[in-house]
Amino acid sequence: MTLPDRTGHFGEFGGKYVPETLMALLEDLERIFKSLKSDSKFKREFDFYLREYAGRPTNLYHAERLSTHLKTLKVYLKREDFLHTGAHKINNTLGQVLVAKRMGKTRIIAETGAGQHGVATATAAALMGLECVVYMGCEDIARQALNVDRMRLLGAEVVPVTSGSKTLKDAMNEAIRDWVTNVNNTFYIIGSVAGPHPYPVMVRDFQAVIGQEARRQFRAKEGKLPDYLIACVGGGSNAMGLFHAFFKDKKVKMIGVEAAGYGINTQHHAAPLAKGDVGVLHGSRSNLLETKDGQIRIAHSIAAGLDYPGVGPEHSYYKHIGRAEYVSVTDKEALSGLKLLSAREGIIPALETAHAIAYLEKLARRVKRKANVILCLSGRGDKDMEQIKPYI
Ligand SMILES: *Cc1c(COP(=O)(O)O)cnc(C)c1O
C-alpha cells in the first residue's frame, strides 16, 4: 500500500488533527491535489517553472577533495544551493503557488522562522502576481532583518507575531488563524513536510524531484545506486525530497541529521526524533519536543532553519520502521562542517546543510569498505555570514 493512507497517516503518524472549521478546507485541498497528480498540464507547468525559473536540474557534483579527506567515502553533492533564492525551498513554494492558482485563490499566506521559507514564498507569489502575507515571530524579525527586507522588496507584507515564544511555532499558529478567517480567497503555503494532511505528502511530492534527479544522475555516473543518502532534518523537506525516490531501494541507507544544538542531553537542541515524544503539533501526529506537563518546548539550533520543535510525520514513520537512521550534530560540529566544505571544495554551505556535512566525518569512521554517498546540499551559506563571523 502506498502511504499516507486515506486518512493521511503514515502508520501511527500524520493525520489531520485540526478544528472542524479547517476540516472542509483540508478536504478541498486534498481533492484538488489528488486531481492535479494526474493532470499533465499541471505537471508541465510545474516542470517549466522548476527548469526555466528556479534552475533545475541541479548538478550532482563529485566532491573529490572532500572525499580524499574523508578517505572511506566517495561523496556526491546534490547542489540545491544552485537554485534561485539559494535553497531547495523554492521547489515547494512554486508547486504550492500553482495549486493556489488552480483553486482560484488570490492571496497567499505563510509562516516563517529564519525567513527562508518566507522569501521563497514571497518570490513565488511575486512571480504569479498574488498578494502575499508572511507571519514571523518578533524575535525572528529582529534576528533576520535582511530576509525581512527581501520579503518586503518582493512585495510581501511581513506581520510580526508577538504571542508565545515569538518564534516559528507561534507564527504557524497565527497563519492558521488567518487561514480560518480568510478561506475564500486565501491559500496557506507550509514550508516543510509538516502540518496536517495533505501538506506532508504534497510538500514531499514537490521536493521529490531532488531524489528523482539524483538517482538518475548517480546511475549515469556510477552505473549503480549509492550506499548512503544524507541530509539535514529541520521539518524534513530536503531530506524527504532526497529519500523518497529511493524508498524501495532497500540497499540504499538513509541518514537524517538533526540539530543537537548545545548537546542532545541539554535542554537546548532541536532533535525531536532523537529525544522527543510522540504527540500532536500543528495538526499532525509526530515526534516533538515537550515539557513534562505537555507544553511545546522551544527548540535551539545555530541553524535557524532547523530550529523547530517538531518534525514531519513521514520521518517519524521512517524511524519507526527502521527505513532511515536519525543522528544529530551539535552547533560546534556544524561549524566545523561548514569550514570543512568551504576550505576543501570552495562551497560555503548553509548552517543547516553544515550539519549533514559534519556527520560525514563520523560516517567515514563507521564504514568498513569504500562507500558512495549522496549528500543533499540544501542551501548556500551567504545568508549566514553575519552569524558565523565570530567563529571565523
Ligand atoms: C529551511 C532549510 C532547511 C530545513 O528545512 P527542511 O524542511 O528540513 O529541509 C535546511 N536547509 C536549508 C538551506 C534551509 O533553508
Describe the structure.
This protein is α/β, with parallel strands linked by helices. The chain folds into 2 domains: 9-50 and 89-203, Rossmann fold (3-Layer(aba) Sandwich), CATH 3.40.50.1100; 55-86 and 207-391, Rossmann fold, CATH 3.40.50.1100. Helix content is 44%, strand content 19%. It has helices at residues 20-37, 40-54, 64-70, 89-102, 116-128, 138-143, 145-153, 168-181, 199-207, 209-222, 237-243, 272-275, 313-321, 331-345, 351-366, 385-388; strands at residues 9-10, 13-14, 60-62, 73-79, 107-112, 131-137, 157-161, 186-189, 228-232, 253-261, 277-281, 284-288, 324-330, 371-377. Strands 3-4-14-9-10-13 form a 6-stranded mixed sheet, sandwiched between helices. Strands 7-6-5-8 form a 4-stranded parallel sheet, with helices on both faces. Strands 1-2 form a two-stranded antiparallel sheet. A hairpin with a 2-residue loop joins strand 11 and strand 12 (284-288). Helix 3 packs across helix 14 (331-345), helix 4 packs across helix 9 (199-207) and helix 9 packs across helix 11. The longest helix is centred in the N-terminal third of the chain and has 18 residues, at 20-37. The radius of gyration is 19 Å and the shape is globular. The model has no long low-confidence stretch (mean pLDDT 96). It binds pyridoxal-5'-phosphate. Residues 87, 89, 116, 192, 232-239, 305-306, 350, 352-353, 378-379 line the site of pyridoxal-5'-phosphate. Pyridoxal-5'-phosphate (PLP) is lined by residues 87, 89, 116, 192, 232-239, 305-306, 350, 352-353, 378-379.
